[in-house]
Amino acid sequence: MDNNLTVCFCNYFEGNREDYLNLAVPLYEASITSDWEAAKLIFEKRPDLVRFGLPKNSGTALHVAAIADQNQWTKKNLDFVKNLVDMMTIDDLELKNKHSNTAFWIATAFGDMEMAMIMMEKNPNLLNIRGSAGLLPLSVSAFTGRHSTVRYLYNRSQKMSGDHWTESDMDFTLLHCVERDFFDVALQILSDCPELARNMAIAVMHRHQGIYNLLYEIGGSKNDICTFKDKSGNNMLHLVGKTSKEMAAKTSRASLLMQRELLWFKEVEKMMPPSLREAKNKDGQTPYELFSKENQDLVSKGLKWMKDCMVVATLIITVALAVAFTVPGGYNQEHGFPIFIHQLHS
Question: Among 39, 151, 187, 278, which is least packed by CB within 10 angstroms?
């Protein structure tokens, strides 16, 4: 089916002013407020409008219902969606709006999980249809932080298998589950797809705290990440040291950055098997040797910053002491005794 039909049907209303005012606008208003009685009266006259694009390029009535204010969702909203879905064919549910999103995709990104379930029960293929930015519904729900929806969709995704799932899709979904602290789903993904564990080494390189926390939860899969090596023979600990220069550009205070980088290196080191902590890459460098080489400039800048701070601190202390020991009225130039203010006026 041509999923651009929604756009074509919008053109119909553009050329039919009377139908636009008497049918399209009222149906849009009924959909945004989940007023099924009002919508039903329109559909009784024109049942085909269930697949027509409505005003504001919003898509079908189902699209409009999916973007309604989720903070005010009630059983009324779900009943409206269910009635609409009952009227629609499987192909109707795959219609896209001007942003290339199905109503199901919108529901998984911003709407209610039960609403998404109603649509998917009728057309399970909705899970495989991409929307904005080429994202699959499961991926976008992880991106927008819909925990219950993510769990539901992952359980229905057959472990993110099928020709429509790429490694990039899987990595994106996993990383955003971690960013949102959906560790239950992330652990399940790593258990079902252990090959993704190696890609997490990249996240550790870039100081992704959520990934680091997850590593302590995944048990044996952690070894798959730790034993990862790039083409230069660098393991994960080498890579942490190698990327310090990149991180240096993001922080102005060298001493603080040096402290953070050293702490991160030591934390990752604790996670590594002892045999890998002293492993050498193809250049014959251990992780610590590489870390030291990569951070030479950072150490110099840190020492200079500390020296400058000490000079400033010394000046401040000198001035402060001078002020503290300055006697009001000054000193007698003949014998050096202080002249107190009250003596000046006596």
Answer: 278
Instruction: Return the ∠ at Cα 305 (arms to 299 and 307), rounded to 5°.
Output: 105
* Residues 107 and 115: beta-carbon distance below 8 Å: yes
**DSSP state string for 71-119:** GG--HHHHHHHHHHHHHS-TTGGG-B-TTS-BHHHHHHHHS-HHHHHHH
Q: If you ran DSSP here, which 8-state letter would residue 272 be given?
A: S
Locus of tokens 């059983």:
75
* Residue 100: CA count within 13 A, CB half-sphere: 8
SS3 of 134-170: HCCHHHHHHHHCCHHHHHHHHHHCCCCCCCCCCHHHH
Distance CA 117, CA 43 (A): 24
- Determine the Cα–Cα distance for residues 139 and 135; give it in Å rounded to an integer: 6
CA 175 to CA 143: how far, in whole Å? 9
For the stretch 12-56, pLDDT in tens is: 666 678 888 899 999 999 999 999 999 999 999 999 999 988 887
Tokens of 61: 């009535």
d(CA 87, CA 101): 20
For residue 298, give the amino acid letter.
L
Whose structure tokens read 């219609």? 95
What are 163-177's pLDDT values in tens digits? 999 999 999 999 898
Per the CB < 8 A criterion, the answer to whether 221 and 229 are in contact is no
- Are 163 and 179 spatial neighbours (Cβ–Cβ below 8 Å)? no
Long-range contacts of the stretch 80-85 (C-beta < 8 A, 24+):
80/31, 80/34, 80/35, 80/36, 80/39, 81/34, 81/115, 81/118, 81/119, 82/118, 83/36, 83/39, 83/40, 84/39, 84/50, 85/118, 85/119, 85/122
- Residue 134's Cβ-count burial label (10 Å; 0-12, 13-18, 19+) is exposed
> How many whole angstroms separate alpha carbon 105 and alpha carbon 60?
13
C-beta of residue 222 within 8 angstroms of C-beta of residue 215: yes
